[in-house]
Automatic annotation (TrEMBL), chain B:
Gene Ontology CC: plasma membrane
Highest taxon in the source lineage: Bacteria
Main location: membrane
Domain called ABC transmembrane type-1: residue spans: 75-275
Family: Belongs to the binding-protein-dependent transport system permease family.
Record organism: Phytomonospora endophytica
Membrane topology annotation: Multi-pass membrane protein
SUPFAM superfamilies attached to this UniProt entry: MetI-like
InterPro entries, A to Z: BP-dep_ABC_trans_perm, MetI-like, MetI-like_sf
Protein name (database record): Multiple sugar transport system permease protein
Transmembrane residue ranges: 21-40, 79-100, 112-133, 153-174, 195-217, 254-275
Pfam families: BPD_transp_1
Keywords, alphabetical: Cell membrane, Membrane, Sugar transport, Transmembrane, Transmembrane helix, Transport
TrEMBL record, chain C:
InterPro entries, alphabetized: AAA+_ATPase, ABC_transporter-like_ATP-bd, ABC_transporter-like_CS, ABC_transpr_MalK/UgpC-like, Mo/tungstate-bd_C_term_dom, NA-bd_OB-fold, P-loop_NTPase, Transp-assoc_OB_typ2
Key words, A-Z: ATP-binding, Cell membrane, Membrane, Nucleotide-binding, Sugar transport, Translocase, Transport
Domain ABC transporter: 4-235
Organism for this UniProt entry: Phytomonospora endophytica
A Pfam family it matches: TOBE_2
An MF annotation (GO) of this entry: ATP hydrolysis activity
Record protein name field: Multiple sugar transport system ATP-binding protein
Keyword Cytoplasm included in the entry's annotation: no
Gene3D superfamilies: 2.40.50.100, Nucleic acid-binding proteins (2.40.50.140), P-loop containing nucleotide triphosphate hydrolases (3.40.50.300)
Cellular component terms per the entry's GO annotation: ATP-binding cassette (ABC) transporter complex, substrate-binding subunit-containing
Amino acid sequence: MPNTSRHSDPSGVNDGPAAGAAAGTSHHGAVAVDPPLAAAAATDVVGLGRARAFAFVAPALLLIGVFLLFPALWTLYIGATDYERTGPKHVSPSFVGVGNYTDVLADPSFYNSLWLSLLFVGFSAVIGQNGLGFALAWSLRNVAGWVRRTVETLVLFAWILPGSVVAFLWIAMLDRDGGTVNALLGTPGLAWFVDYPMASLIIFNIWRGTAFSLMLYGAALSSVPPSQLETARLAGASGLQTLRDVVFPHIRGHALTNTLLITLWTFNDFTPFLLTAGGPGDDSEIVSVYVYNTAIRDGRLGYSGAISLLILVANVVLALLYLRMLRKRSVS
Amino acid sequence: MTISDDDARRAAWRMAARIGFYALTCLIAVFFALPLLWLVTAPFDASPTYAVDVPEATLDNFAEINANPYAWGSMFNSIVLSIGTALFVVVGAALAAYALSRVRMPGRDALLYVLLLLSSVVTGTAAMVPLFLLVSEIGDSVHPALGIDSSFAVMLVMAGGLLPAGIFMLKDFVDTVPRSYEESARVFGASPLRILKDIVAPLIAPGLATIAVWTVVNVWGNFLVPFILLRDPGKQPAAVLMRTLYTESGQPNLALLSTFSLLYSLPVIAMYLYVSRKYGFRFHGGIKS
Amino acid sequence: MAGISARKLDKVYPGGVHAVDRLDLDIDDGEFFALLGPSGCGKTTLLRTIAGLEQATGGSVLIGGRDVTNVTPARRDVAMVFQDYALFPHMTVIDNISYPLRIKRQARVARHARATEIGVQLGLADLMDRRPAALSGGQQQRVALARAVACHPSLFLFDEPLSNLDARLRLEARTFLKRLQRELGVTTVFVTHDQAEALALADRIAVMEAGRIRQLGTPREVFGRPANTFVANFIGSTPMNLLDGVVRGSTVDVAGGSLPVPAGAEGLVTDGEKVIVGVRPEYVRLSRSGEGLAGEVSILEHLGTTTLVTVDCGDELVGATVPEEDEPEPGAAVRLAPVPGRLLLYRAEDGELIGA
Ligand SMILES: Nc1ncnc2c1ncn2[C@@H]1O[C@H](COP(=O)(O)OP(=O)(O)OP(=O)(O)O)[C@@H](O)[C@H]1O
Ligand SMILES: [Mg+2]
């Protein structure tokens, strides 16, 4: 690319202080396609040196490699053995190939947990947190400062408090005999976590996780140009029309991002274990709890390794979708 | 005549919509406040029950914490775990983010991409089996101080999980520091470590603080990792002890539970207030993941 | 103190941009040297290569006779002032100024004393405890200078240090800078894309284009005898008249009239050769009658004490500056005659100067 010298630097015209930083990055962007020989020259503006740069990155990479990457890859192997937590198969596990996978895929309790997870994710995250988060962000955007701050703080507290604490708060609130909810609704003796375990978990998770959607939509809504909202109002559009024609086109990307992230997190959430531990029976044994129960409680490590791998695959799919979204947005 | 009629109807309609709106907002506020209410009333109630009621004010319940052999210890364990992990994450992420931001190494973009992917994909749920096995294995074959029941192992595991996102967030901060600062210092003869210490670290202090707070909040509330890796009640952090308080004793001691919950929650609330006061509560990809 | 030499200096950025192109340059000890050129011509790159912030891809750099091509910036004994000043925002003025001394492990008391001394010299006495964010642009610029002075370098490198100042402040800072350089006597390389700044400040100027030096000379030479049409075009606050012409014996046919071939070009041109005639508007005399090119006044632009008159001559537009009291009427018929000795002749095919 010899003849592109003048055009390769978009900021060549202006070397102002702000443009300086941007110029640095744009040069880097250009470097990405270089022949390796030339790249050796201007790779290092601050004279760190490549050896030292590697030394700087190494500690973090070591931790990540051992405690994140390796376990993920190891799942592949564990899932192909009949490893158990104790007993003879702990000492000398044997290789069973895809045996575990065929077993898992034929196991009704796996489908039970998958179905419960779908319900949990669908109702609590995709519909619940998404909908409530957006509704709150939209209706609070013009509301007086203190009302807004109060609601936001309450919602955020539900999100930041430790899982063990909020779990107990809900156990107390939904208690059969002394719980506040039964007192308010006049339904004494109703054991929510026993009679309606999934519904309770879903309501709980909406309460727990709406904060993220609220903040994300809050940020997204503030990026809608006010002039467009005003144009719609001058044209006499109703609230719903404004939402449909002006707001949604702007925040569609955010909505997708939000949905993907909360789906990923909710799917992997372990807090329901603290509330029901999967019970009664397996009525609320969502996938994350199912893995724990088969692996640590029942000790069937190989079998649960296979399930873990299936979860990993689902996570990878969601994360790749998310990254693709991010990339598309940063391009446009 | 008809016009003013129309106007009146519209005004009444708008009034009703307004009242409805505020009623709904109140309802939602109550929904979010109700579970939290117990947290602030029960600890001060002379006879705490599951229900929320106006307390007969007392501070006696806090004595219950002294009576439990593990309560203070678990709080201390939580502090050690959070601060230890935060040290690993802040130092590791700062060094890595700086090098990745300033030096173009081969495969850097791919590396960053994989890091971002890993940080969201390999969750505790997906990795609990291999993590449990890995740590048991290290304990058996390398040194027991790194195996099951080792706080150090828990720190390393959690640092490994938080580092990718940490590097990512911090790299954003480093990228905003103009290179001319470092180049200028370099011309004056400062060494790279010197530049990192004198120039870069002070400039990205808000970023370092954000990562530290983010790590502490994450570790403080994390239940799964210590639950799997720590069996000895004397080593368990508050998150794990909390659960044993209401599942393992026959009739839960509400005085203890409520006061313990409150004390255990206070640091997180304090950090939230600090962060929102100082930077406004803006989140970088989620202060909690 | 030290001079600088560049020998066949080459800088190719990854990506293939040839920012400095086999460049030879000698800057004398104590000289105030300006690098001038349009945006993207490689001035900053050359400066950064001298500082060692960019590694040369070919050739060598010598500072004070020592080959420093592969020496780190720290060991080159240079000080650089960046366009954005690069003042550390988390340090006070005094800490900023004394930072180079801190790197050299001077004791706190000693380096603060030195910083205060320089600060006072540069009129910063009252600002020593402020942060850069609380300073005006001009003050920031002086702090950046003070910091450069503090490390006692044998070479100053300035990258457009005045371009962030407003027009008025820029003139003041210019004078200040020149006085400072005279007092310290330190060799200084000054990058700018403002030709007036270069003319005003420098002992010598190098005009660059696309990584090469197109002319090197004193301000007077560069202004009065641009070596080619590129430099002619670039230098001067009103653009030079560059008119297509054809040689006819001892005259040149140009703009519907004819002018004598300048003495310095006689014998170097052949009959019928295509040339470009260059003359600065400041060196064109305008009269109602008499000799020169005939034309009609079309536009008047007021430049303060003078007026730039654009005259329609044949199918060319020719500019001339006249004192404000001699301003002609628009539409008036006038004659244009170059001041003797100020007419320049360039070859049409490559734009190089033939003679004056
Ligand atoms: N780090 C880099 N990587 C690749 N190309 C670069 C880099 N820095 C500069 N260039 C290119 O080198 C050429 C010269 O750039 P340089 O910054 O030296 O110009 P300049 O004369 O200082 O311009 P200006 O007056 O705008 O500051 C330009 O074409 C620019 O695009
Ligand atoms: Mg430049």
